[in-house]
Amino acid sequence: MSDRIESLIDARIRAARENGEFDDLPGAGKPLPGHAEPYDEQWWLKEFARREGISAAALLPLSVQLARLVEQLPDEVRRLPSEQRVRETVADLNREILDYQIHPSQPFLPIKRVDVEAMVTLWREALEARFEAARQQPPPAADRRKRRWLRRGRSETPDHP
Questions:
Q1: Cβ atoms within 10 A of the Cβ of 85, count?
Q2: What's the CA dihedral at 29, 30, 31, 32 to 10 degrees?
């Protein structure tokens, strides 16, 4: 039985080759990708993640992902547009941390919930720093010309001395 199946497969491959179905395939005549690299047991996982656009961080254990999110939170908070978004972002992260604390997984990392008010304070300081930096910068040339024109127009009117 297996000889018949094998010969049937060989016959189909030979027919496809004769019909030109294997001509112009992508990668024809080129070596297989990664053939010169050392063997990696998880090559298929890495290839799947690359092909599907999954970051390597998504493959990390939940505890490590949460620890990284807590570590990156101050930078993220500084870029948020409003205090409400800061509070929502921290609340979402704290919910995930609480779920992890209730149902921990391996490897276990002790992760504390984030202080919302500390993050809001950080956001306010970053906002104030952005405003201060904007005040320190001279206005663009177009704005200076417009102001000069407006001042000139006011000084020439009889209502304004």
A1: 14
A2: -100
Q: Could you report the per-residue pLDDT of 44-70, keeping only the tens digit for each?
A: 888 888 889 988 788 789 999 999 999
The per-residue b/e assignment along 24-61, b for 16 or more CB within 10 angstroms, e otherwise, is eeeeeeeeeeeeeeeeeeeeeeeeeeeeeeeeeeeeee
Q: What tokens does 98 get?
A: 């609480």
CB under 8 A, 24+ apart: contacts of 71-76: 73/114, 73/119, 74/119, 74/122
CA 68 to centroid of chain Cα atoms:
13
Q: At 25, is the pLDDT very low, low, confident or very high (cuts 50, 70, 90)?
A: confident
Instruction: Collect all residues with Cβ–Cβ distance below 8 Å to 91 and sequence separation of at least 6.
Output: 116
Between 2-6, 33-37, 77-81, 93-97, the lowest mean confidence (pLDDT) is in 2-6
DSSP letter at 67? H
Taking a C-beta distance cutoff of 8 angstroms, is the pair 77, 63 a contact?
A: no
Structure-model confidence comparison of residues 137 and 127, the more confident one: 127
The contacts of residue 80 (CB under 8 Å, 6+ apart) are 86, 89, 123
